[in-house]
Amino acid sequence: MKNALRILCPNGHLGFAPTKEESFWIGAETQPDYYCCDSGSDDIGPVPLGSDISVSFYEWQTHDLELMLLASRKQGVPMIIGSSGDTGTNSRVDMYVDIIKNLAKKHKLAPFKLVYFYSEVSKEYLQQKMQQGIAIEGLDGRENLTPEELEHTERIVAVAGVHPFIKALEMGADVIIGGRSSDAAVFASAALYEGFPEALSYYLGKVLECASFCAEPYMAKESVIGTITDEDVKVTAMHPQQRCTIASVAGHAMYERSNPFYEYFAGGMLDMTHCQYEQYDEKTTRITNPLFVPIDGKTKVKLEGAGKIGERYIGIVGVRDPYTIQNIDKVIEWARSQVAERFSESEYQLYYKIYGKNGVMGDLEPIKEIRSHELCIVVEGIAPTEKIAEEVTLIGARQIFYARLPEVKGTAGTAAFVIDGVLSAPPAYQWTMNHVVPVDDPMELFTMHELTIE
């Protein structure tokens, strides 16, 4: 067992924007033991999961994978990726596996073992659970999953904990390409596999998951290195002008929790209530005393699912007429009524997002309402077919121009400018699942595959 383990994280969301190379190679020169990075998030909304696409450019994802692959293979140390291709669906895992194959061929790398796992879950699996009387519990205020919600779901992924990654390391993986995963598990798995304490391992994952977001001043996509021992975690900024300070590290570790002192994982809870922080050196903060509290009872795995609402179009309207701006709520009401008159028998959704309506904000609330001299109105129409969605959006946008307001006498259209037509947008999806399913085995929902890259 190592006395200390050092993990380099180059990017808080691989491929979402390209990794900055200077700090990456500074970190690589220190010879870390692992290169780990998460590549996904539900922050991007349900559309990518539902439609099975990436929101990050393929070239950016390839760039980041290439940096990590070349550095890790040069050293002969493992490289771990979670939530491949933004969503961690099976197709995104396959895409990353193909990228690794192509990069290995391009750079004529020596043979290495690649292990990958899938995270998608079938609706049939969950139907069987529900038929057995097993509740699929909702999170964050959601009700338990219903058969109707399940039927409306296009695609489901299970969020892996540390278990598939540890299994891949036990299989001798040099490169791991993971399906949808807990951000922190990507890093914690390496530390747990190497024999370090649970609490420190999970804290290491939590603090590293967003890379340089735990450092100051704010800089995105810069590399950091986390070091774990049996007694502590240290996190160090690699960019020459960044520092990991007590404030930046503690703030990041707690930034997204409803209760900022706790983070839940399959089988336990990370308790950061008693963490101690100290400035270890100019660029490094040392953390001690996190706790990991086991949770009794059945292991539960988080599920994410997305379902299609309909086809979608977008229109943009500019308004400069002062009287129209003053009465913009009535204008929008008129435009809505015209769409409703046209589509009284059709299902549709129509949204107006008004930019510039109200003005300067104080520290906590508006100082006073300041009306802009110009408004930008984004009109979004959703319907079962592209034709209806396009027409709903077009009428909803153009009727702003034709709104009937009192005291307007025969103007020739000075109120608004409507773009010529509306724009097709990706279909609209909604989150249908933010639930947990009880499992007998934490590996139950994940399938492992291995191959030798030559």
TrEMBL record:
This is Acyclic terpene utilisation N-terminal domain-containing protein. It comes from the Bacteria. Residues 63-413 form the Acyclic terpene utilisation N-terminal domain. InterPro entries: AtuA_N (IPR010839). It holds the Pfam family AtuA.
